Amino acid sequence: MSTYRGSPGSTRPGRRSRWLLTGGLVAGSLVAGAVGLSAVTASAADRDPAAPSPAWPATMLQDDVPGVDEAPDDRKPDRQRPEWRHDGDGAVDRPAGRNGRPPQHQVLPVPCDSAQLIAALVRANAEGGATLRLAENCTYPLTHAFQQADEYDGGIRDAREAADAAENPGDAEAPPRNPADDKAGLPVIYHGITIEGSGATIVRGVHADEFRFFTVRDGGELTLKDVTLRNGRSAAEGGSIHIVHGASAVVEGVTVLGSTSRSTEGGGGAIFNDGNLLINDSKLIGNRAVGAQGKGGGLLNGGVMTMHRTEFRHNSAVSYGGGLANFRAAGEVHSSTFVQNNAAQGGGVASFSARTKVFDSLVAHNSAEVGGGLANSDAVLIARQLTVRDNAASVSGGGISTFQGLLPLDDSVISGNTTRGNGGGIHSEKSNLLVRGSDVEGNDAVGKRSQGAGLFVTAGSTSLYRSRVIGNQSTVKAGGIQAERAQVKIDDESVVIENNPTNCEGSKVPVAHCFR
């Protein structure tokens, strides 16, 4: 589409004269007609080297072709072509970039006024993107959802949900989505937009309607830096931010406080990602996923996510992942902290039918029914250099629970975790558990019939390499490793000692290299 906006005084570019082909019928002679056609063609070729072939259709030859009469060196810029922009005052601005956009986004300072912020986002979308620089330390209060028809979804979400329902028939019984619930306080992001927060805060008013702050639609690219989002509330997914399938976002130095998702089966109290998300150096604090099966009190990932140096505190979810839920998705977590989060499964982190990597991170003081620190279900959870300590589970897996999954645990410490069921440190059921270069130490299983304060393994297989299971205590033996219908392997460099009431004695499956 052309970006040319002509002024009243502008003139049209030079145009090529119309060509007229004629059969040259003279006195009814076909021979003369052929000669006439050749003469016209030869004359045209001599007059203009750009002349078309006589074999081209007449309709093509009669079209206006701007600017071809000028010599190449003298040719003026064609203001109707999309690679040129016009300022509206008769002057050519500059060649534009891809798709007619400027090569670089302009920077728009945004005064400390909510209406100005909304207007700047509307302008940025209209112009194909921009960088917005918020007023330093300003608070932008929002009291109403932004009224905007969403015409860019393209049915992608509906198509994905239909495919999921076909693959998982039980999902077809879920209540239909109500578009009226999917509201945002700011204009939907359709293009590449960067918001430099400068320490500003965007807040939903206490008595305002329910809405999140940002929806990043298919093809949109949001970069959000150095801003606080407070008190977002959505009846759908993403209490503050929703990145849809086909969209992307970079979140850096952002704090999301006290936001809520009421989605029945979705969640993401602070953020829901169904596209591509990079989140660095951010804090998600006091957010909730309160739907009947709410997932990801802090963040629900349903797409592709990479995270560095991000803190999750005091978040909660009804179902999976009090801090983070990676649900049918791919996610990587590096050097992050999960503290005092709560959910039914995976108080700190939950990986469900997903591929999740958690490296060099702290998971502490979280609580759940299953998997006080981390829960892995029908998924792959790759854990390396973790500290999982002082978490609690009321049913099983005080530190970690894995069910029908693969869990390699490397160079980690699992300590001080508690359950009222089995598996104070780790509970593994129908899973492949690999513990390498790690310590499982000082965990407790305190229920009346609790076993396996260090590890409780039922079905599946468990292997320990260069690891230590020390000082764990359960009510019923074995206190170190309790195995039922499982294969357990311990290499010569691993030790299982000083557990109470026994190390491995009492296990239904004998554990080689483990005594008493």
Automatic annotation (TrEMBL):
Domain of life: Bacteria
InterPro entries: Pectin_lyase_fold/virulence (IPR011050)
Disordered: annotated span: 42-108, 163-183
Comp. bias regions, Basic and acidic residues: 73-96
UniProt-recorded name of the protein: Right handed beta helix region
